[in-house]
Specification:
Elements: H1 20-23, H2 41-54, H3 62-73, E1 77-81, H4 88-97, E2 99-100, E3 103-107, H5 114-118, E4 119-124, E5 129-134, E6 141-145, H6 152-164, E7 166-169, E8 172-175, E9 181-186, H7 199-202, E10 205-210, H8 216-227, E11 242-243, H9 244-255, H10 261-273, E12 280-282, H11 286-302, H12 310-321, E13 326-327, H13 329-333, H14 338-348
Amino acid sequence: MENTPLPPSSSADEILPVTPSDTTEATPEPAAAFAPRTDLSRLSRHAEAIRQELGKVIVGQHALAELLLTAILADGHVLLEGVPGVAKTLTAKLLARTLAVPFSRLQFTPDLMPSDVLGTAVFLPNKAEFEFRPGPIFASIVLIDEINRAPAKTQSALFEVMEERQITQDGTRYPMTDPFVVLATQNPIEQEGTYRLPEAQLDRFLFKLHVGYPTMEEEVAILQGHHAGFGGTALEKVQSVMTADDLRELRQQVQRQHVEPKLLEYIARLVGQTRVHKGLYLGASPRASLALLNGAKALAALRGRDFVTPEDVQYLAPHVLRHRILLTPEREMEGHTADDVVKQIVQLIEVPR
């Protein structure tokens, strides 16, 4: 069963490339007519408004936009991976501009310290006391550019804040604002001056999305738009269409999505198979099962359904699992990828009906 793909964007000031690996995947076909038990019209209106705003700058990227919206509604962080020049950072900035919430950007470098991210205590002579000055992590949407360029000491500063939505400084707890989402980018090719992200940190990302090169048609559209005078980012053309209160209400609606007990067992079987698969050195944790469940709920809502189907789970499985599993050395030497193993597992597990 497949869902109707998103409608194409109507205008462009700057065109972003399409992710072939994400956009070429089979998507579920439209479900038969049904009477929804939950009114999803408000969620659909907000989602369409965001798509329209992104369409002012973006042509293509329909699957990527849908997955980013899914992560936002599922209250999850996203890791965008791709070579330089495929507009990973711009995509994240545009999405942040559609939300009327505080936004900050962090450029990770090898000399970045934890205090540069979290904040630090400053001594006030007139009061003879220390005052905590929050760092750039204190925002609702935090864009971390080139996240794999910071050393382990700085990466570890993100562990608590990404999982518990708080930091602890000098014995005092400082909660994050709600919502709180980290959108991070990294370059998988360049190795000099980069550090491999710890598995514990990768596990805190709901999705890992591959941003690849554009197709020939998309690149021609990029050139046409630039030649016609639409060069530049034109970020000011993108307006905020959703408030923090709107997002909180929509997230509560997503959490009430109907999920059959057999589907919960299906998710558990999929994730459990990664722990016994002969081609994997490390399987996914229960956090992956929760990510699949929450992501499938949000995806179903975006596609106009108040219930989750096995196809929703199958569609999200590569994005949820690819950064949570490790191949055995033998399987890596044979040229296999994490996505290959996930595809095998999806084909192996019987689909509930």
